[in-house]
Amino acid sequence: MPKRALITGVTGQDGAYLAQLLLGEGYEVVGLAGPSSQERLADERLAWLGIADQVRIVAGDLMDAPALGRLIEALAPDEVYNLAAQSSVAASWRQPRASSQVTSVGAANLLEAVKLAAPAARFYQASSSEIFGRSDVDAQDETAPVRPRSPYAAAKLFSHWMTVAYREGFGLHASAGILFNHESPLRAPHFVTRKVTDGAARIKLGLAGELRLGNVDARRDWGHARDYVRAMWLMTQQDAPDDYVIATGRTTTVRAMCEIAFGYLGLKLEDWLVIDPALWRPVEIEVLRGDPAKAARQLGWSATVTLEQMIREMVDADMARLAA
Ligand code: NDP
Ligand code: GDR
Questions:
Q1: Does the CB atom of residue 41 touch ligand 1 within 6 A?
Q2: Could you tell me the distance, in angstroms and rounded to a whole number, from the CA of residue 126 to the centre of ligand 1?
Q3: Buried b (16+ CB within 10 A) or exposed e, 188-212
Q4: What pLDDT does residue 223 have?
Q5: Share of the chain above pLDDT 90, in %
Q6: Which of the residues 120, 139, 195, 255 has the least number of beta carbons within 10 Å of its own beta carbon?
Q7: Is the CB of 33 under 6 A from ligand 1?
Q8: Probe ligand 2: pick from 220, 287, 307, 310, max atoms within 8 Å of CB?
Q9: 39 labelled catalytic
């Protein structure tokens, strides 16, 4: 019998890559498509990866606790991956309460449903490096202090600690991956890497005359989503649940990341970049860099794709999309 996995947030970037990985491992994959997927094709990203017809999509909402309970009971999943969230930090500043609900209470609803209906299932929670906030640690590992600096980060910290509480209090096999930024051609265009690769491609093709960005001095630790979903799966395969930082260990400014994309297309960044103060956030995390030593030691995980390789892959994909 193949193992059955439920992925919430399957319509998102990580959901698509995780579905692809699990199918490759012989799983039966069921994906929960969230409320906003009614406004567009739920399987758009799955189709891009060529796996849309292999994933069973069910419509649902993490805020609908009774329906979640019924779903978990009916599916009896072996593994549950909670990737659903309102995942934009910038948007969480515009709609703090609404956007933090699904990220916090939604995760609690799912943990409760798993506890009641599938307590032996292995559970993965998508925690975030945003919980570290303005850190005085050079490279954040699992023991670094947490100082969330946005409604999104506060909500993610709640769901992180709920995961720990259900593990310790109810004995669930519940792990949390504290993932640093990870990107891909499937990244939504409102995140900075994809905004940059799409913007550079548009400029190259004569479809745009500038790229407007906010704080280009912010530094992030960027990896490839395909690598990061492998870490999620490795966590659920361990005998004991735990928390892991997943990162590359390298931090780069937004400006330097832009230079990679523009340089690849033979464009000079300074000819096209416009700094727009309206795109700054009320407060910023200036620098994040993760220390993935524990994941390397215990999971045998490390990043395999460099920032340069990933940005070039994203630029190529955006050039192809726009040319089509
Ligand atoms: P995406 O925004 O691409 O995907 C999140 C998905 O959550 C969306 O497709 C959305 O589905 C779904 N969703 C939103 N609200 C609900 C709801 N009420 N009920 C059910 N589903 C809902 O995020 P990523 O794939 O990039 O990230 C996956 C997870 O990992 C998120 O939790 C994110 O916060 C977290 N994370 C991401 C990092 C990154 O760098 N990518 C780093 C650290 C953590 P729909 O559109 O169908 O409604
Ligand atoms: P982040 O990703 O907030 O780190 O959250 P994002 O790509 O939005 O921002 C990264 C950095 O770039 C700066 N920036 C801009 N960002 C956007 N989106 N648009 C701009 O025009 C722009 N100009 C500069 C930002 O200020 C920031 O410093 C992502 C999400 O995937 C979260 O869900 C996840 O938890 C974290 O990564 C880890």
A1: no
A2: 9
A3: eeebbbbbbbbbbbbbbeeebeebe
A4: 98
A5: 95
A6: 120
A7: yes
A8: 220
A9: no
Segment 21-46, tens digit of pLDDT: 999 999 999 999 988 776 566 789 99
Annotated active-site residue in 128, 129, 150, 175 = 128
Write out pLDDT tens, residues 233-284. Answer: 999 999 999 999 999 999 999 999 999 999 999 999 999 999 999 999 999 9
Predicted pLDDT at 111: 98
Give residue 123 CA to ligand 1 midpoint distance, Å. Answer: 16
Average pLDDT, the chain: 96
Rounded to whole angstroms, the Cα distance separating 155 from 174 reads: 18
How many angstroms does the Cα of residue 135 sit away from the middle of ligand 1?
24
Amino acid of residue 194? R
